[in-house]
Design goal:
Elements: H1 3-29, E1 32-40, H2 50-55, E2 57-68, E3 71-78, E4 81-90, E5 99-106, E6 116-123, E7 136-143, E8 155-162
Antiparallel strand pairs: 1-2, 1-8, 2-3, 3-4, 4-5, 5-6, 6-7, 7-8
């Protein structure tokens, strides 16, 4: 093996070890409470109109997440309702951030009984020189099952900001 291949192989191993260590550190970072806001994906500008801006909000709630290894569970709760959450965590790699695939299921004998929403999220980039940056999950959500006259398939983008 020539020296160049040996150096490239060692560099790749170090990147892999760093990504593995980072992913192991990040998975528990998802545990806790997150302020969740989802948004209608409308391209029109709000032009400084506060009412137009408010109409972009699809939902506002709180994620409460627990992690164990690469498993995630918890809930998403809002005034008057909520869903139970279960999902998997995909560890960070050298080229991709930690991400999660989550299913939100309606709670039996509540107004959300029979509901299902699927969430895909990634941990937002941590800027090395960022000031007061708060961890955030960014992603999208799809209504997986119809409910209350709303069709399945509706997609919204979301941001969930870690509560202190």
């Amino acid at each position: 093996m020539d020296r160049r291949r040996l150096l490239l192989g060692a560099a790749g191993l170090l990147v892999g070890v760093r990504a593995s260590a980072q992913s192991a550190a990040d998975a528990p970072e998802l545990a806790g409470k997150w302020t969740y806001r989802s948004f209608h994906n409308r391209p029109a500008l709000v032009d400084g109109d506060p009412q137009k801006a408010l109409r972009l909000i699809f939902a506002e709630a709180v994620f409460t997440l627990q992690t164990e290894g690469n498993s995630l569970k918890g809930g998403i709760d809002w005034e008057g309702g909520g869903l139970d959450l279960a999902g998997t965590i995909q560890p960070a790699t050298a080229t991709a951030p930690l991400s999660a695939a989550i299913v939100g299921s309606g709670r039996p004998k509540t107004d959300t009984d029979g509901w299902e929403y699927d969430y895909r999220a990634a941990l937002a980039y941590r800027w090395p020189n960022g000031v007061d940056q708060v961890p955030a999950l960014v992603g999208s959500v799809i209504r997986a099952k119809p409910h209350n006259g709303a069709a399945a398939g509706y997609v919204a983008s979301f941001i969930a900001v870690r509560q202190s």
